[in-house]
Amino acid sequence: MQSAITSRSKLPDVGTTIFTTIGQLSTEHQALNLSSGAPNFDCDPQLVENVAKAMRAGHNQYAAMPGLPALREALADKVANLYGCQYDPVTEITILASASQGLYSAISALVHPGDEVIYFEPAFDSYAPITRLQGAIPVPVKLSLEDYSVNWDEVAAAITPRTRMIIVNSPHNPTGMIFSEEDIRRLTALTADTAIVILSDEVYEHVVFDGQPHRSMARYPALAERSVVVSSFGKTYSVTGWRVGYCLAPAELMYEIRKVHQFMVFAADTPMQHAFAEALATPDSYLGLSAFYQQKRDILALALRDSPFQLLPSAGSFFLLARFSHFSPDSDGDMVITLIREAKVATIPLSAFYSDSTNTGMIRLCFAKDDPTLLEGARRLCAWSAAHA
Fold first, then answer.
1. I need a labelling partner for 340 at 20 to 30 A (CA). Which of 2, 25, 83, 302 fits?
2. CATH 3.40.640.10: which residues of the chain?
């Protein structure tokens, strides 16, 4: 049907996300999936049983707008034990319909037209569009292409009187970088005595490798008092399709975020909230995640060791970056399409995480997959690259 209305797009230069595009192409070519940042294995069966139990007990209507009290209380205890910060479960913790909804709620509640929002590229693809939808200006600062470190002098130069928010993401998607103590020190110094809000995307908070701690904004009082921390039950419990996350913030900031949240979804799924409250009673359900995914990172890295792909270090998250520019002149977008069609392996071009046409010569691999998938994906990539490098 042809519409009688001509719409004026708020995002005229935004099309279908790269994840949808790659997913469709992968299906067409029956490619093995090392692209999407979601596990391909089942969650703990007890978690499913606890959701079913909640449903059978009649917990099928709206939860309280801020979230199930028992779940907020469990999160307050968890955060206090891990990071030493005590959030009030009544006024400073909100359960969300995904971390993505948390990002949108926080940006739309706290950022106004004409404000500037600094974020780091490569970046998760929703930060800039959400900012633009508020009439605000996204200000990308590029991470080093060598080691994906932050150049804090460039951040300082990007700060203006209109800077309202800095978005940080550690562990980082797509690079696997994590913040160091020096990063924390510089961020603290740059935001001290300002009105800048820090929006901290911490969905991979329990996926940090090689004995490093997760440096949550909640761990540092000078940052916690100006930070909105967003995290994800889906990533932690391997149920990304359940779309439940949470948000931590000082009460004054949370009051504004909840105004948006109530008109977006009102409340996250009730049975899932009951199940997550039970899961949090067993800390091992999340404390063992780093070792679990470190093993998967190492399986994929070892299987690709003899390929011409150069793997960059991954200190956290679900992802490894692989450089190919030394053996192919192709753009990373073209390389991804070639690998889908010829190697039958789906990956993501790193350029998809930039707002400009940056060609990185790198692809992103996701190792949140079962071991046979990792090994078969590596075998295919090795076979293809041996014939083409």
1. 302
2. 45-286
Bridging pattern class, strands 116-121 and 163-169: parallel
Range(s) within the chain of domains with CATH label 3.90.1150.10: 18-43+288-388
Please tell me the distance from the alpha carbon of residue 92 to that of residue 82, in angstroms, as a whole number: 17
**For 173-188, what is the mean pLDDT?**
97
C-alpha to C-alpha distance for 221 and 378, rounded to whole angstroms:
43
At 274-291, the pLDDT tens digits run: 999 999 999 999 999 999
Instruction: Give me the pLDDT at residue 329, please.
Output: 92
| Terminal Cα-to-Cα distance of the chain (whole angstroms) | 48
pLDDT confidence bin for 381, thresholds 50/70/90: very high
Query: What is the average pLDDT across 31-49?
Result: 94
- Backbone angles phi and psi of 228, in degrees to 5: -110, 115
Map tokens 């007890």 to a residue: 46
Q: Is the pLDDT of residue 14 over 90?
A: no
> What number of other Cβ atoms are within 10 A of residue 36's Cβ?
18
From the list 313, 321, 364, 377, the residue with the least C-alpha distance to 35 is 364
Confidence of residue 151 (pLDDT cuts 50, 70, 90): very high
Q: Please state, as a whole number, how many other Cβ atoms lie within 10 Å of the Cβ of residue 302.
A: 12
* CATH fold group of domain 45-286: Aspartate Aminotransferase; domain 2 (3.40.640)
Which tokens belong to 50? 């606890």
The predicted-structure confidence for 334-368, as pLDDT tens digits, reads as follows: 999 999 999 999 999 999 999 987 788 999 999 99
Q: Is the pLDDT of residue 1 over 90?
A: no
Give, in order, the Cα–Cα distances in Å from 328 to each of 77, 99, 148, 264, 347.
Answer: 51, 37, 22, 46, 16
The reported pLDDT for the residue numbered 5 is 78
Name the CATH superfamily, with its identifier, for domain 18-43+288-388. Answer: Aspartate Aminotransferase, domain 1 (3.90.1150.10)
> What's the farthest any 2 CA atoms get from each other in the chain?
60
